[in-house]
Amino acid sequence: MPSSSKLHAYIHGKIQPLQDAYLHVSDLSVQRGYGVFDFFKVQDGKPVFLDDYLQRFYESARLMDMAVPLSEKKLKEVIAQLIQLNQLPLSGVKMILTGGYSPNGYDLAAPNLIMMQQGFSLPNRATVEEGIKIITHEYVREIPVAKTINYTVGIRLQKEIKAQGADDVLYHQQGTVTEFPRCNFFIVKQDNTVVTPAKDVLLGITRKRTLELASQQYPVVEGPVTLEDIYQAKEAFLTSTTKRILPIVQVNGRAIGDGKSGTVTLDLLDRLIAQEEQQVSRTA
Ligand SMILES: Cc1ncc(COP(=O)(O)O)c(C=O)c1O
């Protein structure tokens, strides 16, 4: 894998070495936290489910009243060039649209588009089989369907998660759960119905794939999930681009089901991996 000093990024309308990719301090992302982004996986040099991510990126920008300076076609060309230059075996491409350089740090400006690629590793089989422990926290993101750059609550809670011996935090509103800072949430009920919250959540691409796969084999519901539903569930898991499907075995110190990774969860994960591999092998 090349060292990060050899990586390239797109900024200010051109591809440059990552080490030279700077944004001025007057940008509204720095001054006021105004910006959106998206992140997709690249396996063996091929983007996985790219069209879904691009669609969500343009939609997040639209919801935040920001214009993406490149057409989808041009964006895809830049992505292909970056992947070609960076030569990373497993990576993610992050597309960030920031508020732009505002003379007084508040007035609207022309957005800046940044694209960067970084390596990452997926959870290994031991982590998947062990499952993770989570805590809950009352919070709802400001504009949940938009993938904005505001992750301050999640970042601030990292110390609390660690102090409680947990791995992540699930947001809820008066006992009705929504999502994690960076993942969607599912339960499997005792009758194998797969349920995921639909309100006040980011419409995750892995969530969408998981719903499609689950509906081939199990009853599926997009609807409210309460903390009590979780405690009564047979299984629970989270989904995201970087984690795929990860079993949750404990919530607020209470074991879920038999306290082990569930069979429905692991079945869905195996089928998701197969689907991703199929898509990568089909892409020219
Ligand atoms: C708030 C939030 N929910 C859910 C997700 C999972 O979405 P995806 O499966 O598209 O990665 C993310 C991804 O970063 C997120 O930021």
Automatic annotation (TrEMBL):
One of its GO terms (biological process) is amino acid biosynthetic process. Pathway: Amino-acid biosynthesis; L-leucine biosynthesis; L-leucine from 3-methyl-2-oxobutanoate: step 4/4; Amino-acid biosynthesis; L-valine biosynthesis; L-valine from pyruvate: step 4/4; Amino-acid biosynthesis; L-isoleucine biosynthesis; L-isoleucine from 2-oxobutanoate: step 4/4. GO terms for molecular function: branched-chain-amino-acid transaminase activity. Keywords: Aminotransferase, Pyridoxal phosphate, Transferase. Its cofactor is pyridoxal 5'-phosphate. It catalyses: L-leucine + 2-oxoglutarate = 4-methyl-2-oxopentanoate + L-glutamate; L-isoleucine + 2-oxoglutarate = (S)-3-methyl-2-oxopentanoate + L-glutamate; L-valine + 2-oxoglutarate = 3-methyl-2-oxobutanoate + L-glutamate. Its EC number is 2.6.1.42. The keyword Transferase applies. Belongs to the class-IV pyridoxal-phosphate-dependent aminotransferase family. This is branched-chain-amino-acid transaminase. The lineage of its organism: Bacteria, Pseudomonadati, Bacteroidota, Cytophagia, Cytophagales.
